[in-house]
Structures are given as structure tokens and as C-alpha cells.
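As a warm-up, study this chain.
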Amino acid sequence: MERDILVNQDRSAPRLWEFYEELNEIVYVADIDSHELIYMNRKAREVYNIEDIQKIEGKKCFEILSGSSAPCVCCNGNRLKEGFFAEEIRYNPVLKKKMASKDTLIAENGRRYRFELAVDLGAWEQQNIGYEANESMVNEGLRIALAAHSPEQSIAVLLEYLGQSLQSERVYIFEETNCQTVNNTYEWCASDVIPQKENLQEVPVEVVRMWYQRFVKGESVIIKSVESIKEEDKAVYEYLSPQQIRSLVVSPLVNEGKIIGFYGVDNPPEKYLEHITTLLQILGHFIVALIHRRNHVRRLEELCFEDQLTGIGNRHAVQEHFGTLNPDDSIGILYCDVMGLKKMNDSMGHKAGDQLLIRSSECLKRVFHEYELFRIGGDEFLALCVGIEEQELYRRIELLKDEMSAHHAPMALGCVWRADGKEQLDRLLTLADNRMYEDKRKLYETKYKEMRR
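Now compare it with the structure written out below.
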């Protein structure tokens, strides 16, 4: 009889979980921070068909419990508290059962463990005929997606749920761009499947032209065997075959009568192939609504963090970006002040003044295009150059001066460089600002006397 029920736990720690070994309920323990699966009791190993406890050694909880290659999107690990149980009733798409679970946090030897006890509330009724119309599956997918905190997370949760429920290897969304291509924008992969998202950007729509002929009729595409299309649809075959895709079902995403992309499932069990299409069509309407919400949220974020005149970050974006800086990285700070803006506004009107600001920002974009740029005041710009070398910063500043001269966009400049970001940012910003004002004073005394305000 197997006695080594603790897989990865520190051997000096008490055998905290042995009490649960013979329980009739499912019990598992995972490290919250590393997602390492620490323990599964006899019942858990039984329902997940794990005969040898050593097979879970070094494995992640999402690999074993969800069959996924990445942490579960709806994981509640970091929301758990010691002494409190989070209770939930949810459908488990891997076990095909509705489960009631109790989760809590256990801290031991400096590690944080997620402890879950789950009870089977009855097997899910899966029908061979009408599988796609199963109301429970659709409702559960919508429920967990709507519980997510953002449209982005809702989409990710729904794809994960579909992948697990349909026992497929990959679920994905492709969205059309404005240049006759489609981009793979979301994907979920089973634990042993290599992600393909990065390789599937800017795919010409022409490649899937035959699919679109079906999409415009409101139909899905079912390919039972990719090898069978080798001759009749070579373009699609050359994309699918290297991805180890044997079969798939894809369905259009339609918004106000216009196809905006498609989504699909790779390598589901053969018995599901004929019964997935209606399910995808039903959930497709919901995915389109989520994409619409996502676009709306993105636009609101742009309005909050983007300067509407120049298209670069605003003061809010500066503060947001400060929180992402790594103190080990070198940093270059460049303050810029547009010369003569008030005089131009007064003499030629604000439209001319706006054009001066746009020309100035375009000069910055051309020279510092890979760094963060912000408009922090009416006539002030800021460039934050993380990871830049000192000599490279000064070289760029000389290039900026050439751009300013060529495009009639005079600016006073003040810069600071440090080998790391451990010095207080406020102090560095003040130093760069002071140097900019000194440069501004000199320029008004010499080169731009006529612009003096």
C-alpha cells in the first residue's frame, strides 16, 4: 500500500494532510505562489486517474487538475485567507461533474498552501445527441466568464472552460485587422501543447478564403482530418499541419452583420466534432459582446492615459508608468519645454500653437520612439528612457536638436542619467527640470530673444 502521500512538502514539516487520505471527498493541496501540486488524497487520485503518486511530483496544479499549460485564469489562490473558507459550487469541465468546494489558505514553514476539499454533486448529463444544446454547459460558461473582473479576463476564462469541457488541445480567437489580415489574439492550450499565438500574427485573410465562403452563410467549418484537405486547400493545410492539428471546428464572429474574425477548437475527441458547432455559434455572440466591451474599455483607458492632441502619454500615464520601473535598470530623463508657444498662440491663434506642439512631439517620437514619452503640461514633454546607456542618451539628444531645427520646433532641454533607478525619481525629475529651465534661460538670452514672454 502506498504510504508516501506527501510529494513535495518539506520533510521536516508535520504530515498535515495524512488525515484526509481516506476521506471520500476530493482533497488537494497546492503551493499558491509556485502552483506546485503538493498533495492529492486517495479519492482525488482516483477521479483524476493517477495510479502512481510520483507522476505528480514537480507538476503544477493547473497541469494535473485542469489539463492546462498556464495557471487557471479564475484561480482564487491569492484571495484566500487563513481561518476562512471560500465556498463555491461550480461545474468542473475536466471531471464533467458539478462540484461543491471549500478552499482556504494554510501557511506552513514559510510557504502558502491552497487547501481544497470538493464534493461531487452529481455527474453532468452529457448526451451524444444534442450535446451542443446542453443548457448547463452554456450557462456555466457564461457564469464563470461574467464573474471575471474585465472583458480580457472573461474571454480568457471562457476559452479555458471550453478547452477543458471539450477535451480539446487548443482554443483560440482570431480577429481581423484593417489590412486584410487576421491575428491570433487569444489562446488556451492543454498542458502538453505548444502555444502558437506568436506564430499566427498577420495571417492573410486569403489563406482562409474558403472558410470565409462558409462564414458569410453563417456556417461553421468542420475539418475531421487535416490530411484530407492537403490537396483541395493547400494554403490552410500548410498552416495547420506544422501545428500538429489533426481536426478542428471554427465558427465566425459576426458583429452587426460583418465578420470580425473567428474562433475555434483544435483536436477535440471525434465524438464531439459534429456537436460543437451550435455551441460555438451560441457562445460566439457572447464573445463578440466581450470583444466590443474590451474595445470600449481600451478606448476609455486611452482617454485616461493618452494626450489627445499628440497621442503620447499624459500626466496620469506618467504616474502609472513609474510603478513599473525596475530599480536595477539604468534610466535617462529628458525634460523638454516648447519655446514661444504663448507668443504663437497670442499672435497666430491656438491652431498654430497646437501645430507647434504636434511638431515637437513628432520630433521626440522619431528620436525616442522605443522609449516612453509624455506630455506633462501645456508646453512640456518628458522622455523616460529605461535601460539606455549614458552616451546613447546624449547621442539621441543631439539627433533631437537636429530634428527640432529641421521641423521648426524649438525646445529647451534638460537631462539626467543614472546607472540605476535607486535614487528617488522625484529628485531626478526636479534635477532634469532645473537643467531644462537653465537651458531655456540661455536660449532666450541668445538664440530666441524674439520669443521672450
